Amino acid sequence: MYLPFFATERMRLTSTDLPPEAPLALTTRIGAQRLVAAVDAKAFAHGLKPGMAATQAQLLLPGLILRDHAPRADAHGLAKLAAWCLARYSPVVAPAPPDGLLLDVTGCTHLFAARTEGQSRNPDEGEENLLADLASCLARRGLTARLALAGSVGAAHALARFAAPDCSRIAETESLKRALAPLPVEALRLPPETPQALRRLGFERIGDLIGAKRAPITRRFGHDVFLRLDQALGLSREPLVPLIPPELVSAKLSFVEPVITAEGLAQAVERLCSDLAAALEARQHGARRLDFHVTRLDRSTSIVSVRMAKPNRAPEHMARLICEKLAGLDCGLGVEKVLLAAPLTRPLLPEQIASELYGRPQEPDLSTLVDRLANRLGAGRIYRTAPVESDWPERSVRRVAALAPKPRTETPRPENWLRDWPRPARLLPDPMPVEVIALLPDYPPALFIWQGRRHRICRADGPERIFGEWWRAPGEIALARDYFQVEDEAGQRFWLFREEVGGRPQRWYLHGFFA
Amino acid sequence: MIPISMVGAQHDKESGAGWRATVLKELRREVGALEAGARPDAPALAFEAEAIDSHLPEGGLRLGALHEIWGGRAVPIDRQEPERTKKTGTTRTSGMSGFENPGGNGGAEDIAAATLFLAGLLARLSGPVLWCLKARDLFTPSLAAAGLDPDRVIYAETWHERDVLAAMEEGLQHPGLAAVVGEVARLGLTASRRLQLAAESEGVTAFTLLRPHRQTGAEPTAAATRWRIRSAPSLPPMPSSSAANPVAGIGRGRWRVDLMRCRGADPASFITEACDGTGRLGVSALLRDGADAPHLDRSAA
Questions:
Q1: Cα B168 to Cα B37: distance, rounded to the nearest angstrom
Q2: Per-residue pLDDT tens digits for B22-44
Q3: Quick one: where's region Disordered (chain B) (predicted)?
Q4: Which residues of A are less than 8 Å from B246 in CB distance?
Q5: What CATH number does the domain containing B267 carry?
Q6: Would the pLDDT of A304 be above 50?
Q7: To the nearest whole angstrom, how far is the Cα of B172 from the nearest Cα of chain A?
Q8: Has residue B25 been placed in a domain?
Q9: ipTM value of the model?
Q10: For residues A513 and A494, is the Cβ–Cβ distance under 8 A?
């Protein structure tokens, strides 16, 4: 995440007396000279750049407002933004001062994928949604941001800052070379004088460096150039140092001897959980998410995240959720340090126990069960269903969160679900075409053949006509279905329909089973 | 247990089959309670269908236990394997434990009636229900038609078949639930024992809907009961005066409910009407076949 105008926009957000239409620049004093340190978007459009003399800037753009630059406040603001990202997007957020944030969203993007039933989730969709969500949240706060998502830290840094505005900002690890090649060498996070010297030698773009002989360049510029290049291409590792904001509720433990067994880790988790529970209780908060950071001997860090459906601070519950997830963790040479943090907490106050005196029986608390199952099966696989106003059977049900509040309606709930016509117990995900013999065009079928079996129909109800919902899918405007409930000789009941396109009957399908 | 002397005294006063039936029923109840272990007086959920309830030792489905429900392909009544129904009265352990499930392979078409049968049972329990499944063919609005409020059901969708049993066990440890349902392809002896123990310890009732991948026989399990629900042809239609519609309309469906195995009761078959809107099986047309139960024939329609 690159925030090109962070300093000025932060200044605008914190001070109230700045006219929004006037351009703004922040100045800093070096000796006797006043230099521009940061500019906002309007000033930038007029050609103002950091490093200019303040007087020159005022000359170029009359009406420019000058303020003192406050780098420490900026760093603090960036850390606050990072803490917000930590709660919302990813357990690993590292500020990249002065104007960037790095988020490791590995394994977090699926949470942003659209939740539609019956569709397989496209992982890329999650990434795009995450970027869109981040961009809109930042824009609402008045921050201009340029976002890029890539397989390595260096590449994300380069793409966010130097990629052309119209090209895709998402790069897979395989296509990093292609994405980075057209970018200038400045994108490589090198000391400021190195890119200039490289340009003088004819290396203008990263693509020029990729194929170049390494030895002469290394000899002249040191190892940095190719280290940064390899990091950007994802060839050498570059761990992010995750930010732990001081106000974050957390507990940590360092081991004298490295821990390599699962039992040892489990014990550590139990201790951390009871510490964390005490800290949460002091604040009257419960955790919605827990991040368990495991630092190995070689300084590499793994993070195990668990989510909870309701704020919770019961240490046994938290420890159990984390321990279940530790099974796949690679301890490497041994674990040196562990840290348990609760980046997302919500107030959790003592609750009134509903008594039968009030006439309302207490609803059993299922949150621990839901947490455990979600931890094991994945979020989104524990759900309830809710009715949708739609005649189209495939669309008449949607999934809602398992503990979502039940809608309060006037009618008792089962009636809310019932329709005039019965619905089958089992619905085929895709209707299956069947061969049908009907006596007259509008009569229910007399016989149908499905999976090579003949079913002679003894009784039938129907048709129930359902029209295509053109406001949901444009192709459905001419579509209609005539549903029949039929019973065969053996008593088995099926749900058949005849599809109509533009008023002309087409095919027969089997869509479900009543009994 | 009825003391022997008392039995003798009763023998003097009463006579014939009525007395025998009473003593046998009492003995069966006692033995069943011994077998069940810790809970001799476990609460039971009555079917509220006299013929079924009076056949079961606890007067209904034992709560806090594991029950197996099988589906199966509908078979016309006159062709339903007669040797099975004649078996009522043979020893109860050998009964139908190793039955072949004719035609049923656990597809959506075979399990639909069993689903509604189960929904009707759950409708008369109170509290949330955990439904563990892998297939995505359950159509939840239909549960409302059997009286089960779909809002009471929390679904756990698993990636693999084997996770269904694990999710069920997790759910059975939660006393806030009324019941846990699992749709499984097979239920082995070990898995069923684990589920049964978990169900007993917290008093949560477990149901497995069996959806075998192939036509297989049932394995011996630790389940308290084993049922098989198949659809049966409706009663002959009322003579209709309207000539406009040549096909008779659909009324309330009928099921063939087979009690395949039950501790303390013989296997039996019933013909019932499908669940009504409150989850009760129809009793008006309740039939039981098997020649050794003449007193039940009175309830036949």
A1: 22
A2: 888 888 877 766 665 545 566 88
A3: 79-102
A4: 439, 443
A5: 3.40.50.300
A6: yes
A7: 10
A8: no
A9: 0.75
A10: yes
